[in-house]
């Protein structure tokens, strides 16, 4: 669930939380940052940590690109400050003893938010709406492909001909569209039930899950919320589902 800073303070002091993940959202929608001890996080006066701007200048494979204003081999890979948003503290039920603090990157010298941060850009758009006396409401859905493979075994197969749960357990459903077919998703319902319940525990309000067209394809629907809340929930869900899949020795690809 979403918690307050006072809640976090109590949970850390009571020994129920020992890790605070301080992370920003990169250009590919991934969480990038550090895991702090709870004690150290509470001791940070301004709840800021340093991280390299390198994370905003890499490809999806993590390879450094050239020519970026913010960070490159030409200008150097400077640090920025991640400032934890204490209004976006989420328990991570799939990661024992952990809380996530979604953070915004700021320039070390000017303290200005980094212009290329997706979350910063969204906050600027929300401010523009507010100046027009408007508010946004955002309904998000998340689709992914779930395979009965580890990332290692999928890599060894060169990401081709991967096993999916429907094929292994419901062969009759593997050759045609699965869209909304409840029976087609029965094989992975234990996993999807865990996803729904743990996301709800993390404060990610769900409407439903259902199978999509392909045998391995599934969709999550979230309860609408304001744009920043919905964007945070979407990112946390992506992070959490991937972590949960690894525990089940499965792998996930987002489309």
Automatic annotation (TrEMBL):
Organism superkingdom: Eukaryota
Entry-linked InterPro entries: Gln_synt_N_sf, Gln_synth/guanido_kin_cat_dom, Gln_synth_cat_dom
GO molecular function, one term: glutamine synthetase activity
SMART domains in the cross-refs: Gln-synt_C
GO BP: any one term: glutamine biosynthetic process
Family of the protein in this entry: Belongs to the glutamine synthetase family.
The protein's name in its UniProt record: GS catalytic domain-containing protein
Organism annotation: Meloidogyne enterolobii
């Amino acid at each position: 669930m979403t918690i307050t800073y006072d809640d976090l303070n109590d949970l850390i002091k009571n020994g129920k939380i020992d890790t605070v993940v301080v992370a920003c959202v990169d250009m590919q929608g991934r969480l990038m940052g550090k895991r702090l001890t709870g004690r150290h996080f509470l001791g940070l006066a301004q709840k800021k940590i340093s991280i390299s701007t390198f994370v905003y200048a890499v490809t999806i494979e993590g390879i450094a690109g050239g020519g970026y204003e913010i960070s490159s081999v030409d200008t150097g890979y400077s640090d920025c400050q991640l400032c934890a948003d204490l209004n976006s503290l989420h328990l991570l039920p799939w990661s024992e003893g952990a809380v996530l603090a979604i953070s915004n990157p700021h320039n070390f010298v000017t303290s200005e938010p980094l212009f290329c941060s997706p979350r910063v850009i969204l906050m600027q758009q929300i401010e523009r709406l507010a100046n027009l006396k408007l508010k946004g409401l955002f309904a998000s859905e998340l689709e992914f492909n779930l395979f009965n493979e580890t990332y290692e075994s999928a890599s060894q197969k060169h990401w081709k001909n991967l096993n999916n749960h429907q094929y292994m357990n419901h062969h009759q459903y593997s050759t045609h569209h699965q869209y909304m077919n409840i029976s087609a998703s029965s094989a992975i319902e234990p996993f999807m039930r865990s996803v729904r319940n743990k996301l709800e525990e993390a404060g990610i309000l769900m409407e439903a899950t259902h199978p999509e067209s392909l045998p391995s394809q599934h969709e999550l629907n979230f309860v609408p919320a304001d744009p920043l809340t919905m964007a945070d929930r979407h990112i946390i869900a992506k992070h959490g589902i991937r972590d949960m899949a690894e525990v089940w020795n499965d792998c996930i690809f987002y489309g």
